[in-house]
# Entry
Amino acid sequence: MAGPPEGLSGLLASMSAFDEAATGCISVRALHRIRTLSVRDDALIWVRKGCKTLLGAQGPQEVPAGRVVVLARGSCWDVINDPRSDGRYEAHVLQFGDAAVSRFAARHGGDFPQAPLQDARVLTPDGGLAECLERTLAGLAAPGLSQGLRQHRVEEVLLMLAEAGCVLRPRGVPDWPEQVRRLILGRPHAEWTVETIAAACQVSASTLRRRLAAHGLACAALVREVRLEVGLGLLQSTGLPVGEIAARCGYDSHSRFTAAFRSRFGFAPSRLRGPG
# Structure
């Protein structure tokens, strides 16, 4: 296996937060459509109230309450979250980190020769999957659970998904854009510039620009994208005021955050701050 990209080896040691799995809960009252949402890590979303609709090249896929959708890393969607008659859209999210997927592939990859998931797969959580998810979500949220048990529970979910025909592929060595995203994600409020990011990556600013340009990216655009994705997550999963979310995402004013958010996702952040 190839080593990490030059200058990024120091960052890899601080990536433990991305190595295993993370959980969260989306809860909103307002119907909203998110424009061009990129899936950064393999994720499972268990819709509990309302309905999620994924809009992609193959047409719409509905995920009503009670169903699960598994999203492959690297896929991209327009997403509609609709409270419908439930009055609220709620979903549990389980993101699978690099180490968890790689560990599973090393142990069980030979048992599941089918092609890995490329886009999305909607499942009914039967055959014990619902109980497995409840146990895993609760365990990952419990501060006292040992690392060994956390790994075991995440692997159990991955095994059940694979047995249902939904196999996730390991990422391999993260490329430059992914490593920079992770750096920014750790402190989205920081004053990130080409120079500060390059210094953290132990390369020159010109080298950083060149490495990102090879992927069709510019540093400022990458910083903005990460900050707005963090803002979207906070709007969907917390009751924080928009102004505080703007500050946490590195924006010095409510209005600048709102304008950037609306331009990126297609609706104002205040839409997710309706009554109730």
DSSP finds ten helices and nine strands in the chain.
